[in-house]
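forwarding from the other thread:

> can someone predict this with S-adenosylmethionine?

sure thing
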Amino acid sequence: MTDEISREALHDILRGVAALTGDAIVADLARLVGKGVRADISVAFNPKQIASKRWLVDTLAEILPRPDGPVWVLGAWHGVLGAMLLADTRLSIPQVVSLDIDPDCAPVAETLNHRHVASGRFRAVTADMMALDFAGPDGVRPGLVINTSCEHLADVPAWLAGLPAGLPLLLQSNDYVREPDHRSCVPTLAAFETQAGLSELWFAGALPARNYTRFMLIGRR
Ligand SMILES: C[S@@+](CC[C@H](N)C(=O)[O-])C[C@H]1O[C@@H](n2cnc3c(N)ncnc32)[C@H](O)[C@@H]1O
């Protein structure tokens, strides 16, 4: 068997694809791979993950293109969604705050989004979303809170109960019960609507993938 592709070769390929397409996120990913990054970045950038984030960004552009304040992304992992939100010219987002409980995520997210860190439009935070004070030290209330990791929480209604009433929310979950880290999967879109109990519902939809279906809600807590 011939050798597997090296990090240096993958770095070169990504730089070539960035030059070919002119896509700034690919250039940022190439830079990240060149610096060295943990292997699950490949999962965060896999086609299903990107398709679900593409669906999110396209829907947000229709439903809430100009949130009234910073966008907090919870369970944000390596900051891929933040990069996509800040790259989309249909959206007007003053700042993305990318929050994850895993302390290894923030440095990766800030490296991927280094251009936006430099301009003050991106910051990564290590915290438990179950114990958040959205007022924060700067006292700026979010214009939108996004959680695409609802399936990872033990108690989604308890998390929602801790948020300010009326807060704009975008939530994703799925029915992928075979994944051991998934603790709050829902079997249907209707079950997700019941679990979330939003006071206003602006969008509800389902995106089928090969092994599971992803659900998305946009509305107010
Ligand atoms: C596998 S990832 C992302 C999956 C998600 N479906 C998506 O589309 O991005 C789930 C992330 O949620 C984070 N997470 C889980 N519980 C959390 C909590 N209580 N507070 C903050 N982040 C949390 C994990 O550390 C992990 O990075």
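The chain has a mean pLDDT of 94. thats all i got for now
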